Amino acid sequence: MSSVIDGFAVVLEPANLLYCLVGVVIGMLIGVLPGLGPAATIAILLPITFGLEPVTAVIMLAGIFYGAQYGGTVTSVLLRLPGEASSVVTVFDGHALARQGRAGAALGIAAIGSFIGGTLSIVALTLVAPIVAGFALDFGPPEYTVLALLGIMLVSTISSGGRIRALTAAAIGLLLATVGRDDFTSAERFTFGNLSLADGIDFVPIAMGLFGLGEILYNLEERHRAVQAPTRVTNVWPSRADLRQSSGAIGRGSVIGFVLGILPGGGAVLSSMAAYALEKRRSKHPERFGQGAIEGVAAPETANNAAATSSFIPLLSLGIPANATMAVIFGALLIQGVTPGPQLVTEHPELFWGVVNSMYLGNVLLLIMSIPLLGVFVRILRVRAAVLAPITVLITLVGAYTVNNSIFDIGLVIGFGVLGYLMKKAGFDPGPMVLAFVLGSLLETSLRRSLLLFDGDLTGFLTRPISGVLAAAFLAVILLPLARTLLRRRHPKPSREAEGQADSSLPAEGQADSSLPAVGPEGSAEPAGRSVPNVVGAAGGDQRRAGPVSQQTVRRDPNPEESE
Amino acid sequence: MTTEPADDRPPAAGPSANLIAAVVVIALGGAAVVGAAGLGSGPGTWPTVVGVALVILGLILAAQARRAEPPERFTRSSLLVVAAVASMIAFVAVIATIGFEIPTVLLAFVWLRFLGRESWRTSIAVSLGIVVVFYALFVGALDVTIPHLF
Fold first, then answer.
1. Using a CB-CB distance cutoff of 8 angstroms, which residues of chain A are in contact with residue B145?
2. Strand, coil or helix: what is A523?
3. A188 beta partners
4. Per the CB < 8 Å rule, is B115 touching A389?
5. Taking CB atoms and an 8 Å limit, are A393 and B88 in contact across chains?
6. How far apart are CA A323 and CA A492, in angstroms?
7. What's the pLDDT tens digit per position in B57-82?
């Protein structure tokens, strides 16, 4: 218990307070701005964290992640333009409320829900993470092998662009992780005699390239509409009736977000959709949803914050990142010389509790800032993408150099940037690739250690209790969708109920079909498209596919950006 | 150019594009298997496993090429990306010899004026502003060892 309190002492150090504030402000900004998502931003800012203490660095990066969940709401409500993929469902009722002149109430309830969801999730994190870590201390190489495989598999399952493409990206990530000297025999692998590759490819250029630069290049092709100055927001405090109506939704959203956030591959997007769907199903008047139901804003906004927080549990207690953003934070910790894993709580309690406790503070800061600063954030929307792009690209290039003082690293960033761009064009999500790269050496090392342990007998994985259970889960993840495909072939039209239950590969799509409202004739929200069910990208690099939701509310400038 | 719907992604390419992606994946997997064979068992085993997995995934992708969601087509605006990458390669090529200041101004200017179609005035002002801030930040405040002229 005393280490929990020591954690607060760590948070209250002036430097940590400052970087917590910096993190949440950056997070809110990128949440509001179309262009970069949290994973890309964190990747680009990695070089800056090198000069910081590990705990300070992670406090800031975590702030960016959950801060973005707050910011994404603003544009959903005011402009019908989700700033983050996790705020797509907020658009339906949030913008309807804004059109009724109740934008303030929608934003207010979203901020309050986010605060409650985030805070409840931190309390649960405080209680659960040490227990999970204690349990995981007994994990040996076989358990880690299966756990890493399961993580990669689950993340690929829920990724956008289809399972096979996601698995392909993951396999390429695993292959990239083998470049460099082999840990066991120090044989050089795939280095092509290049000295810069002998120590392996650094994580930073991969993350900066695939997420950061890839995203920037991909956005270049997209012409951005001029953003219409939104209506003034007045009266941000929701009424007492609103609060009463939303309280249940906030409670349920917190639970859904927390649970889905822990699962590898789960996260903010999936949980916001699940929370929305649940509220609609439970409601006595489901027809209100889409017409400006305040619960329709409260539930998803609560859930996405709760999920953003709870997705730290697998990272901090097992050392397994649950999504792409966590993979980048994992990389940041490794660079700092801290290996996340079950020993983190006992070996670096100040880091563990410092980061966890900073989230309480960050959520308070966000709640305080989000309401009065709304006008400022809305004004930032007017900064044009054409001006932001060269700034971010130069930060990326110069930042990549500063990591190792290496021009070769800038070249790598550009190379991976082009790869990320091409992957996105071809419908491959770079998220699983970065995740698999991060887990690659852990996976290979534990696999080879396990095989030494088992004398090369693969059935050893099944006979150890924990790895056996995990292996069963792993097989279930593979076999269930396969069985479904076979069943579907035999019976061309299975009942929707059965399909919804068996469909673990595209949960968002299943929900989108059955419970999300259509956005209306002019809308193009396409929640089932390749954009939205991207859970990896949600936390990760692919926010922008959330895309514009309506063309009606965002007036097209007849002569965009040329009339200066 | 303003008649097309703004903010739209380029149109979809044909199924052959999926096939090309699949072939690239198979080739990569094959190369990994061949490269791993030279390493022998031990260091080569894991890359072989991953390479074989890639080949299998590539074959599945090829089989699904017709049904799967097609990739985006390369359009005229893809040339923007080519120009962007070229500008960055030029940046890397000269930064070690002439420092980062001039390449930074030029890259920012090219992106603003020609890729972003900003006005001359905005482009010049912003690109000069960027280099001043970068100099103050990286050389002045952070004391980074980036090659610089001044």
1. 402, 405
2. strand
3. A181
4. yes
5. yes
6. 34
7. 999 999 888 887 788 888 888 889 99
Classified as helix, coil or strand, A181 is strand
Residues of A in contact with B142 (CB under 8 A): 51, 402
Note whether ipTM > 0.95 here: no
What is the pTM assigned to this prediction?
Answer: 0.80
Q: Cβ of B50 and A174 within 8 Å?
A: yes
Please give the distance of CA B22 from its chain centroid, rounded to a whole number: 20
Between residues 448 and 467 of chain A, which touch chain B (CB distance below 8 Å)? 448
Contact, A65 vs A76, CB < 8 A?
no
d(CA A118, CA A283): 24
Percentage above 70 pLDDT, chain B: 94
Residue pairs between chains A and B whose CB atoms are closer than 8 Å? 184
Residues of B with Cβ-Cβ distance to A192 under 8 angstroms = none
* Amino acid residing at A487: L
Residues 35 through 94 of chain A touching chain B, CB cutoff 8 Å: 51
Contacts (Cβ under 8 Å, ≥6 apart) of A205: A400, A403, A409, A412, A413, A416
pLDDT at position B4: 33
Condensed to tens digits (0 to 9), the pLDDT of residues A61-77 reads 999 988 888 887 887 88
The answer to whether A519 faces chain B, any CB pair under 8 Å, is no
- Residue A232's pLDDT band (boundaries 50, 70, 90)? low
Mutate to test the interface with B, among A164, A530, A531, A532 (most CBs of B within 10 A): A164
SS3 B72: strand
Q: Is A190 an interface residue toward B (CB < 8 Å)?
A: yes
Integer-rounded Cα Rg, in Å, for chain B is 23
| Widest distance between CA atoms in chain B | 62
Residue type (1 letter), A414: I
Tokens of A49: 């964290």
Q: How many helices (H) and strands (E) does chain A have?
A: 26, 2
Residue A219 has pLDDT above 60, yes or no: yes
Q: What are phi and psi of A203, to 5 degrees?
A: -70, -35
**Pair of tokens at residue A438:** 């991060």
Instruction: Tell me if A259 sits within 8 A of A528, measured CB to CB.
Output: no
- Residue A511 makes CB contacts below 8 A (sequence gap 6+) with A273, A274, A277
Residue A392, burial from CB neighbour count under 10 angstroms (0-12, 13-18, 19+)? buried
Count CB-CB contacts under 10 A for residue B91: 21
CA A269 to the chain's CA centroid: 8
Q: What is the mean pLDDT of residues A4-13?
A: 84
Q: Do A391 and B95 touch (CB under 8 A)?
A: no
Judging contacts by C-beta atoms under 8 Å, the chain A residues touching residue B6 are 223-225, 556, 560
Which A-chain residues 372-391 have CB contacts (< 8 A) with chain B?
A: 384-387, 389-391
Do A16 and A59 meet the contact criterion of CB atoms below 8 Å apart? yes
Q: Tell me which amino acid residue A261 is.
A: G
Tell me what pLDDT residue B146 has. Answer: 79
- The tokens describing A224, both together, are 């951005």
From the list A34, A269, A304, A256, the residue with the least C-alpha distance to A160 is A269
Chain B residue numbers touching A168 (CB-CB < 8 A): 25, 54, 57-58, 61
- Residue of B35, B57, B80 lying closest to A190 (CB–CB): B35
